[in-house]
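JOB MANIFEST
job_type = single_chain_structure
chain_count = 1
residues = 320
[input]
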Amino acid sequence: MKFLINFFLVLCLSSLFCNHVKAHGWKVAKVKCQDPYYGYCYGIPLKCPPGCPKLCEVDCRTCKPYCDCDRPGAVCQDPRFIGGDGVMFYFHGKKDKDFCLLADSDLHINAHFIGKKSNKGRDFTWVQSIGVLFGPNQLYIGAQKVSNWHDSTDYIHIQLNGQDVTIPLGDGKTWISSETGLTIKRIKLANSIIIEVAGLFTLRARVVPITQEESKIHGYDITNDDCFAHLELGFKFNSLSSSVNGVLGQTYVPGYVTRVKMGSPMPIMGGADKFSSSHLFATDCAVSRFGSKSDGFELNDLPMVACGGKSGERGMVCKK
């Protein structure tokens, strides 16, 4: 009788959380280099690092797996950024509001934050979608609301200039817009893509849920009506001007000195007011430069930086 009571108690408690159905169990994931140019690494299965045991990428040059969220240009978790200067910081913004991640003369990126109230004096927030403006074009990448998560189901919503973009499921499936220079390619069966706009940027984007384990560790109190599916992003910019701004963009300016308190358990970037936008495709944040004349100096060759530490580690600094 006692066994049955305990069984039903565990069953009831589990039902309170977002249902997460894994397609391949909970073992440490493995990744392979997909580029045959690197013959010494091509096709070799490599275990993901401890900091990201379920999802990682592989650097074919070094033949080592790495956590996407630990590289410059990353925006992950309860928004945790790795700046172009290699410094990790948090920008929490505010739930149900939009903020400018990058503001330049020919590229503008806003993010829509979702979240919920917490007892820590601030909202728990995540990036639900981004709006990218380049030339006359508007690109939307968003995570759909999910209550029952299945790894094999696609929850990415993509639009270009207001029209839905549909990409067949499957690793390597590609969609191209020759008119805009936009290419979107799947790098997993579902929920993970690479976006490239020729000459401007490359972006790795994936949709992930808040799991029961994460909810318990961080006190998110996620229930079964919403997994708070959100985006994890990894940007690489090709031609930023030296006047670039935005939560992330400012960290790419030559000589930029971070304002976050280094050594803090949670280094936080302030300035939410000047980064606030009226909607996802607005260019009305205080630091907006979209459509202005470029200063003529482009940051084409940013220094390579190597990041240490495990995913989720606080106060991390990357070294050039």
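[summary]
The first strand starts at residue 19 and ends at 21.
DSSP finds three helices and 23 strands in the chain.
exit_status = 0
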